[in-house]
Amino acid sequence: MSWLNWFWDEHQLLLQQCFSIPFGFLFYFLATFGFLSLRCRYLYMCIGGFILAVITMGIYSILLFTSVFIFVVLVCTVDHRSLHKWVFGVQMLWQTLCHIFLQYEEFYQPQLFNLRLVLAVSSLMLITQRVTSVSMDIQDRRLTLSLNGLSLSESYEVLLPVISYILNFTALLGGPLCIFAHFVSFIEGIDVNPPPNPSCVVSVKLVQVFLLEYLRYSFLLIVNYTYNSNLIYGVISMWAIAMVLRLHYYAHWQISECLNNAAGLGFCGTKAGCTDWSGLSDGGFWVTESSVCISEFARRWNATTANWLRRLVYKRCKYFPLPLTFGFSLWWHGLRVGHCIGFSIWAATVNVDQYIQRNWLPKLSAAWMKAICVSLSWITTQIIITCIVIIVEFRVISTYLTYLISTNCLLECPKTTEVQCFY
């Protein structure tokens, strides 16, 4: 029994996503065989998200439902030309208040870790992505949500796809971010042109999740073995503990991708005789970790969120788009001390890397010089990301410094940062 409790505590977030996968398969088979009408498909996604929120977050699920209610009110009352500004401002204000409440709880009651509240705030961050994506679609005239002159039942039919998209159970506890138009196209066309059976690809990706967790355990062994006063061992130990933290992200992204695939989302067609289910992905371990420069790593890390930030901030800023994008990402993450320092380092190094890519690398003509430059760039990227991840996940510099001199802190690190690492 104690072993089961340990397993649940260590992998609670992964298991919650795993428990939702059968309901994803159920939706796929009911929809493809024609047992669900269009309205029922939207309701399945929406009600599934509502139930999942209540079960996993308890009373704190009200934070999510309040956000959805506010968005619906804004859609019904605000002119479409200024809707995005209202949605962006009100949603970020509400999310910031929730972050402040979470940090207040953590500061005054550090011994009582509230997983439900942490999960609610992290899910609220994902809802912020979806509501702002819809509001940008309306502002850019990609989507029309006009409720003028419509009856109550007609307004319900217009708003149901949006509410279903926001509360979609396949994306409630974790990304990736699906574009609203793709979500609607999928729901409306799954019975006419269904994607192939996702059972095989989901099974393969679940095995990959297991391998990622096994790899994380292997890196923990490296940490325990290499930790001593030796400088080289200390550097290896720091890199290994940062890899342990990053592997949490990869595992959660992979299990979220499994859940979306189980419902039929993420299918991109057939390439070279093989089905491609990579339409919804926040980044794979090998692809992301093989990035040879910090700017490339930034684009591949949490890819759908990076695309959302690019659309929301980077492309809309005439001046200083890169610092403002990282600044908003810092705000979106909760403005913690560790985030402030880590994101500042990340923004500065990306800016320097872009300058080098533009001005220095084109001057290298010899192949061996380029090979050496690429190798050194990959090593530098790993060093920078290691420093950023440790600073961000440990939240404050004092803990980071303690890490360098305390064996106990090192050994306890993976357990205390698991939930924080998730979002």
TrEMBL record:
Entry keywords, A to Z: Acyltransferase, Endoplasmic reticulum, Membrane, Transferase, Transmembrane, Transmembrane helix
Transmembrane intervals: 20-38, 50-74, 158-185, 231-249, 319-347, 367-392
InterPro entries per the UniProt record, alphabetical: LPLAT_7/PORCN-like (IPR049941), MBOAT_fam (IPR004299)
Topology class, membrane: Multi-pass membrane protein
Molecular functions (GO terms): serine O-acyltransferase activity
Gene Ontology biological process terms, A to Z: lipid modification
Subcellular location: Endoplasmic reticulum membrane
One Pfam assignment: MBOAT
GO cellular component: endoplasmic reticulum membrane
Domain of life from the UniProt record: Eukaryota
Entry annotated with the keyword Endoplasmic reticulum: yes
Name by which UniProt lists this protein: Ghrelin O-acyltransferase
